């Protein structure tokens, strides 16, 4: 079963969306920047099996899109995501172990696809990020949250565990913090999340959230798109690996390959000629 929704609400569970096809929206924020937007504000952007499938499809499509250099993951409404939809959880509780396993594998696939996207991913978090939503944040490369954002690994309150998100969350916040927050289901704020490593920047409010995102996008726009993808792959290749001869040789080959590549050649030439590289937007020249 997927990670639970524990954001308090006094209202009964609403009926399933009448327009499920609009629950995940793909936008072009600016040239080279694609947004994936959770668009269920009335349900606090809680997700179910349909939303998970749509997110997987969106990220797989974007991962193959050479015109997308950066991805922004955000949500409409007051909350980033309340985690899993309560109505869906009720349905899953009546399903067999095999059906629950299949369901969990889908959420695991979503986390894996998001985590391994070749492009840099910026996550924008406002309001609550509970349960599986913490996993989404952990799979982003950069996370910007507001002062009002709250986080909770709330699964144990329902007698569950944050299973499929755990590899990404533990890598983001470390084992020591996981040993507390996986077990206590305490709510922690954006500044704590920043101290733990889950969040990189804390914005003052939603307007500042967008401003900080624009600044980050401007920073990324000055970098070689292929180099950013290669740098991300490099992190996965060396992270938590012993410093062996194979790792050292692999890193040497990676830099040699990129130096002789078209983008590497252009970047070095631009540096030596004291000009902007071809991928840098004109307003940054």
List its salient traits.
single chain, 6-stranded mixed sheet, 14% strand
Question: How would you characterize this protein structure?
Answer:
- This protein is an alpha/beta fold and 285 residues long.
- Helices cover 47% and strands 14% of the residues.
- The strands form two sheets. Strands 1-2-3-4-6-9 form a six-stranded mixed beta sheet, with helices on both faces.
- Helix 3 packs parallel to helix 4 (132-139) and helix 8 runs antiparallel to helix 9.
Brief overview:
47% of the residues lie in helices and 14% in strands. It is α/β, with parallel strands linked by helices and 285 residues long.
Please give the alpha-carbon distance between the first and last residues: 50 Å
User: Nearest-angstrom radius of gyration?
Assistant: 20 Å
Helix content: 40-55%
Strand order of the largest sheet: 1-2-3-4-6-9
According to DSSP, the number of beta strands is 9
Structural class: alpha/beta
Major sheet summary line? 6 strands, mixed
Q: Indicate the overall shape.
A: globular
The topology string of helices and strands comes to: EEHEHHEEHEEHEHEHHHH
What percentage of amino acids are in beta strands?
A: 5-15%
Annotation field: number of helices: 10
| Residue windows where pLDDT falls under 50 for at least 5 positions | 1-20
Mean pLDDT: 91
Secondary structure elements and pairings:
Elements: E1 24-30, E2 33-38, H1 49-63, E3 70-75, H2 86-93, H3 97-115, E4 121-125, E5 128-130, H4 132-139, E6 142-146, E7 150-152, H5 166-184, E8 187-189, H6 190-196, E9 201-203, H7 206-221, H8 225-238, H9 245-260, H10 262-272
Parallel strand pairs: 2-3, 3-4, 4-6, 5-7, 6-9
Antiparallel strand pairs: 1-2, 7-8
Helix pairs in contact: 1-3, 3-4, 4-5, 8-9
């Amino acid at each position: 079963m997927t990670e639970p929704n524990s954001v308090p609400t006094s209202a009964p569970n609403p009926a399933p969306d009448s327009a499920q096809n609009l629950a995940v929206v793909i936008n072009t924020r600016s040239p080279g920047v694609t947004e994936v937007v959770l668009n269920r504000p009335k349900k606090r952007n809680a997700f179910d099996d349909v939303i998970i499938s749509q997110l997987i499809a969106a990220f797989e499509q974007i991962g193959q899109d050479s015109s997308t250099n950066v991805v922004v993951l955000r949500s409409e409404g007051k909350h980033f995501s309340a985690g899993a939809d309560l109505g869906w959880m009720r349905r899953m509780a009546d399903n067999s172990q095999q059906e629950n396993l299949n369901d969990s594998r889908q959420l695991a696939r979503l986390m894996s696809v998001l985590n391994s996207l070749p492009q840099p991913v910026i996550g924008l978090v406002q309001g609550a990020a509970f349960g599986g939503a913490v996993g989404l944040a952990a799979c982003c490369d950069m996370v910007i949250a507001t002062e009002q954002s709250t986080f909770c690994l709330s699964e144990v309150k329902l007698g569950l565990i944050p299973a499929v998100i755990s590899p990404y969350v533990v890598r983001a916040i470390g084992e020591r913090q996981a040993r507390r927050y996986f077990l206590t289901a305490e709510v922690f704020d954006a500044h704590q999340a920043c101290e733990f490593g889950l969040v990189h920047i804390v914005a003052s409010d939603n307007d500042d959230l967008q401003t900080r995102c624009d600044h980050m996008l401007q920073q990324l726009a000055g970098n070689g798109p292929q180099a950013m993808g290669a740098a991300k792959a490099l992190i996965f290749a060396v992270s938590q690996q012993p410093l062996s001869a194979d790792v050292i040789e692999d890193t040497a080959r990676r830099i040699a390959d990129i130096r002789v590549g078209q983008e590497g050649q252009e970047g070095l030439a631009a540096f030596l000629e004291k000009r902007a590289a071809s991928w840098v937007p004109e307003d940054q020249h």
